[in-house]
Amino acid sequence: MEFYKKAKEEVIEEFLVDTKTGLNHEQILKQRELHGENKLPDEEEESYLATFLKSFKEPIVIVLLGAVALSFASSYYAFQFQNDSKHGMEALYEAIAILILIIINAFLGFYQEISARKSLNALKEMNNRYVTVLRNGQFEKILSTELVTGDIVKASIGDFVEADVRWIETNELQVIESHLTGEADAISKHTDAILETTELGDRHNMGFSGSSVSGGQGLGIVVAVGEHTELGKIAKLIQAVENRTSPLQNTVHKLTKTLMQVSAGIVAFTLVVGIIQAGELSIASITSVLSTSIALAVASIPDALPAVLSIVLTIGAAKMAKNKGLIKSLNSVETLGSTSYICSDKTGTLTKNEMTVTHFYTNGHYYEVSGLGYTPEGEIRSLSDAEQEPSYSAFIAGGLLCNESALKEVEGKFVPFGNPTEIALTVLGQKAGRTKTQLLESHELIRTLPFTSDRKTMSVIVKKGDNYLLYIKGAPDVLVEKSRALLIDGELNTEESEKQKFITTVNDYANEALRTLAVGYRILSKEEAEQGQLEDLEKDIILTGVAGIIDPAREEVKASVKTLQDASVEVVMITGDHENTARAIAYNLGIVKSKEAKVIKGIEIEEMTDEELYAVVKTTNVYARVSPEHKQRIVKQLQKHGEVVGMTGDGVNDAPALRAADIGIAMGIAGTEVTKDSADLILLDDKFTTIEKTVENGRTIYANIKNFIRHELTTNVAEVLSLILGLLFFTVSIGNVDYTTPTLTALMVLWVNMVSDAVPSFALGYDVAESDIMNEKPRDPKESVLANYTWSRVLIRGTIMGLMVFVAFVWAAKQGMSSNEAQTVAFLTLVYGQLWHVFDARSSQTLFRRNPFGNPRLVLAVVFAGISSFLVTIIPFFNVVMGTAPLSLPVYLLVLFVPALPTFILSGIKEIFKVKIW
Ligand code: ATP
């Protein structure tokens, strides 16, 4: 029989679990053995072989394979028809060497993909979900994958139901099961058996894996885990694909594609030039330019770019996670760089969420409380009349009964459990010599109406003797609205002046940056107490008092706010707290500059049309008494202004606002599982400062990517240009150099692209931030990575470098050097020119702006590239394969230092005349 048809006692018995203690260690092991882990079958990962072979489908590799085919053909032709074994061998070596490079490239790509996958999996793992479960007599938080059948789980608002459960206790429990039933509204749950056969959506005593708790609390017994759950049965249909490619990756992909087309055009062009120069269409005329064509095909594509890009993005994400900002998709790295608004909660993010009641007003009297923190040591002192007997017992009792927190003494230290606002009241109670346990001896707890940030209240219903009472606590303005009288000197008082005094007190507390919380009660009938609806219960309250609670601001936040403001990122506080508290804290943290700054309240937003809200969002930095749905409206209006918005949230109702934001930010510790699920960024330490660091990381990674793209493309332009110049203008043999000799051999070009240029480019991806990166404006999200002088910088620098390589080649020929020597001169001019240029490329301005040793990886990479490129000119094996030749010392010195000139001269002019285009 299905579990929903059984009485809860039957289900409990079936799993042999004690509902007071939960499963014990042996039972857990046994259940796990029986039903396995609580995991859905993993998405099939691509096999290693498939990953390896994937790189052969890359467009670049296809071009290179084409080059191999051409080289083989050329070799065959030379041996077979021209009897030119020198040429034949050269072409053969070329073909083999390119093939080897393709294989090395495939291994590199494979290695990169696997390590990227590992980083991503590690990130995913950090993003695991947790559940509260009763085991061995204690409630504990465990990874949701560790749940077993028979476990007793506790689900509260904001939790996911992580397995299929049969509810055995519910307290106003409401659950959203839209992923299974399509029904978007919350469903109330109960514990009674359902006798008739029903559809999933009507099984109101069951909870299903993947649903979220939108209200109340429940205790359930796990009846199915992993693939045996209802979700597991349909999991294959809805497995989410998270691996979206980022806009940057798309841009680069498009760029490579375009460059391939350009490359095909250039190759066709060289063949035509060859034919024209030879004056006839013959195999000989084609082979005369074939080596140049192959070199050109290789030169025009930035081979290493896509691989470097994806690895830099993933490693960037891993680095952010190390700094406590966990991002969930690579897209966010880019978006972070253009974030222009950070809307943050107050409590816990900007403040410490360590609450202490320092003042309260009750029964018409003011009190001050000493002692900060959760140690219940301190005195309550009357401010109204020091002589008078304390008369705060009704207020303290309300605050303790309407309270789910606890304070336990563990090894001489007080350890708080529960919500900090409630802990503050528990501590206050103890300072007054009262505890909830004492009160429960005379009060029987009947119902709890949990706190929600929409209502901003929480109530309990208790039975005292034959009387039923509702105790309520919540935002004072809300409670005042719901009240009919105040308790003043033990009497009910309905005078307007007393009400005004109460309101003034609340405002005064709030002006001092204190969080305010009012307490009240109401007498109920038995029927109301047992069956009354929430809306009918929380009304006609008698106010007993209000507490002023200090929640100290986090010290480091002020500096972070300033850094973000300097980076032209607006910081906005959106809080559920009182207007004056919000303003005072915002002022203390530098979010607003005036003590009278404008604050918009939730009710005002409610009355505004979207157009009205649009008109004020850009000039408002503090919103108070806001409900979660207001957050979403604020995000949307800011986005209409073209702003890129990061929005924090911790409660379950914040999820839509987080999804609407460009960067939804959830708290890793205090946040609910549902908010974490809808977020793009999870703050593992809940700290606002982490947002600032993540924004800075995002900007740095983007700038680095931009730098290496620029550097790589400059090389390509230089290579293509030097080869084309050779083809067009080196039409008469000079000295020992035949006019068909290309400026660079294909293998030299490959060496540059894959070694001497790629290695430093890769190091550019790891560069530290340029010192003023947080003084700049956020990047325009619509702007391509190639915009803003990127192209002009690439073209101008590349053209000058290309000219230089060609001139070096002609100069070498005129000096009487051999073909190989002249090509080696050209090759080294290019390599060393680019190794100088890389120091310029790493700055958004010029190389003079940055310490060249600031990135040790880059220095190492440059030294490696410089030395290895020198070695390939003196090691005979490479001489044969690559067509290099040893040079004399003076020539080595010339090719090492002369190519530095363009970089230094252009950068110098740029510094002096503030030119931007190169
Ligand atoms: P933020 O949105 O910045 O985190 P917040 O935590 O103050 O701010 P809410 O949690 O929505 O926002 O609280 C709003 C108000 O509700 C508080 O100012 C307080 O008066 C009241 N409140 C908070 N927690 C409780 C609670 N557990 N029981 C009753 N009332 C509460």
From TrEMBL:
<dbReference type="InterPro" id="IPR036412">
    <property type="entry name" value="HAD-like_sf"/>
</dbReference>
<feature type="transmembrane region" description="Helical">
    <location>
        <begin position="259"/>
        <end position="279"/>
    </location>
</feature>
<comment type="similarity">
    <text>Belongs to the cation transport ATPase (P-type) (TC 3.A.3) family. Type IIA subfamily.</text>
</comment>
<dbReference type="GO" id="GO:0005524">
    <property type="term" value="F:ATP binding"/>
</dbReference>
<dbReference type="InterPro" id="IPR023299">
    <property type="entry name" value="ATPase_P-typ_cyto_dom_N"/>
</dbReference>
<dbReference type="InterPro" id="IPR023214">
    <property type="entry name" value="HAD_sf"/>
</dbReference>
<feature type="transmembrane region" description="Helical">
    <location>
        <begin position="91"/>
        <end position="111"/>
    </location>
</feature>
<keyword id="KW-0812">Transmembrane</keyword>
<dbReference type="InterPro" id="IPR044492">
    <property type="entry name" value="P_typ_ATPase_HD_dom"/>
</dbReference>
<feature type="transmembrane region" description="Helical">
    <location>
        <begin position="794"/>
        <end position="813"/>
    </location>
</feature>
<dbReference type="GO" id="GO:0005391">
    <property type="term" value="F:P-type sodium:potassium-exchanging transporter activity"/>
</dbReference>
<feature type="domain" description="Cation-transporting P-type ATPase N-terminal">
    <location>
        <begin position="2"/>
        <end position="76"/>
    </location>
</feature>
<dbReference type="Pfam" id="PF00122">
    <property type="entry name" value="E1-E2_ATPase"/>
</dbReference>
<feature type="transmembrane region" description="Helical">
    <location>
        <begin position="858"/>
        <end position="878"/>
    </location>
</feature>
<keyword id="KW-0547">Nucleotide-binding</keyword>
<dbReference type="InterPro" id="IPR001757">
    <property type="entry name" value="P_typ_ATPase"/>
</dbReference>
<dbReference type="GO" id="GO:0005886">
    <property type="term" value="C:plasma membrane"/>
</dbReference>
<dbReference type="InterPro" id="IPR006068">
    <property type="entry name" value="ATPase_P-typ_cation-transptr_C"/>
</dbReference>
<keyword id="KW-1133">Transmembrane helix</keyword>
<dbReference type="InterPro" id="IPR050510">
    <property type="entry name" value="Cation_transp_ATPase_P-type"/>
</dbReference>
<dbReference type="GO" id="GO:0016887">
    <property type="term" value="F:ATP hydrolysis activity"/>
</dbReference>
<keyword id="KW-1278">Translocase</keyword>
<dbReference type="GO" id="GO:1990573">
    <property type="term" value="P:potassium ion import across plasma membrane"/>
</dbReference>
<keyword id="KW-0472">Membrane</keyword>
<keyword id="KW-1003">Cell membrane</keyword>
<feature type="transmembrane region" description="Helical">
    <location>
        <begin position="294"/>
        <end position="318"/>
    </location>
</feature>
<dbReference type="Pfam" id="PF00690">
    <property type="entry name" value="Cation_ATPase_N"/>
</dbReference>
<dbReference type="InterPro" id="IPR018303">
    <property type="entry name" value="ATPase_P-typ_P_site"/>
</dbReference>
<dbReference type="InterPro" id="IPR004014">
    <property type="entry name" value="ATPase_P-typ_cation-transptr_N"/>
</dbReference>
<dbReference type="InterPro" id="IPR059000">
    <property type="entry name" value="ATPase_P-type_domA"/>
</dbReference>
<feature type="transmembrane region" description="Helical">
    <location>
        <begin position="60"/>
        <end position="79"/>
    </location>
</feature>
<feature type="transmembrane region" description="Helical">
    <location>
        <begin position="716"/>
        <end position="735"/>
    </location>
</feature>
<dbReference type="GO" id="GO:0036376">
    <property type="term" value="P:sodium ion export across plasma membrane"/>
</dbReference>
<dbReference type="GO" id="GO:0030007">
    <property type="term" value="P:intracellular potassium ion homeostasis"/>
</dbReference>
<keyword id="KW-0067">ATP-binding</keyword>
<dbReference type="Pfam" id="PF00689">
    <property type="entry name" value="Cation_ATPase_C"/>
</dbReference>
<dbReference type="GO" id="GO:0006883">
    <property type="term" value="P:intracellular sodium ion homeostasis"/>
</dbReference>
<dbReference type="Pfam" id="PF13246">
    <property type="entry name" value="Cation_ATPase"/>
</dbReference>
<dbReference type="GO" id="GO:1902600">
    <property type="term" value="P:proton transmembrane transport"/>
</dbReference>
<dbReference type="InterPro" id="IPR023298">
    <property type="entry name" value="ATPase_P-typ_TM_dom_sf"/>
</dbReference>
<protein>
    <submittedName>
        <fullName>Cation-transporting P-type ATPase</fullName>
    </submittedName>
</protein>
<feature type="transmembrane region" description="Helical">
    <location>
        <begin position="890"/>
        <end position="909"/>
    </location>
</feature>
